[in-house]
């Protein structure tokens, strides 16, 4: 008899606890679903809006690889059209800036600082040094900036410090007079998007 009563009591306790636990659990589950449902719906609408169709705004990487150039080998890319439509030339979005019809990606990188001065003649000196560097290195980008009270001449757009260091050595070799005041600085750089 006592065993049966004990079993009935255990069963009653189980029923009472489960009747409290199940609705409580369901309420929490419902809240969690409501919390994450908008993000799932937004992600789905984002996918359908983009629809992975590339607009013809520029040359894709596949076009650049397959382009025949004098003195270079020929590359033929074999892949399905679906892959070609998924990969394309992104020339808009976050950190993309357009200057004179060219698109640039702005990222953290390095430049070589050639000159920094805060005298009256510093602007003219920075522009003169920029002109001299452009004569020897015409393909390297130069930037003359005024950040009060300094005029600065910085050169190059490099993703790594090693790339900037290579230019620094070339500049020191070409312009030994400027050598002591040249060094590498971290800065937001512009990488051209082709």
What does this structure look like?
- This protein is α+β, with helices and mostly antiparallel strands and 194 residues long.
- It folds into 3 domains: 51 residues; 37 residues, no CATH class; 98 residues, Sporulation related repeat (Alpha-Beta Plaits).
- Helices cover 46% and strands 24% of the residues.
- The protein is built from 5 helices and 5 strands; from the N terminus they run H-H-H-E-E-H-E-E-H-E.
- Strand 1 and strand 2 form a beta hairpin.
- The radius of gyration is 32 Å and the shape is elongated.
- The relative contact order is 0.12.
Compact summary:
The protein has helices spanning 2-50, 61-66, 81-86, 122-136, 161-174, and strands at residues 96-99, 102-117, 142-147, 150-158, 183-193. With 194 residues, the protein is of the alpha+beta class. The chain folds into three domains: 1-51; 53-89, no CATH class; 96-193, Sporulation related repeat (Alpha-Beta Plaits, 2-Layer Sandwich), CATH 3.30.70.1070.
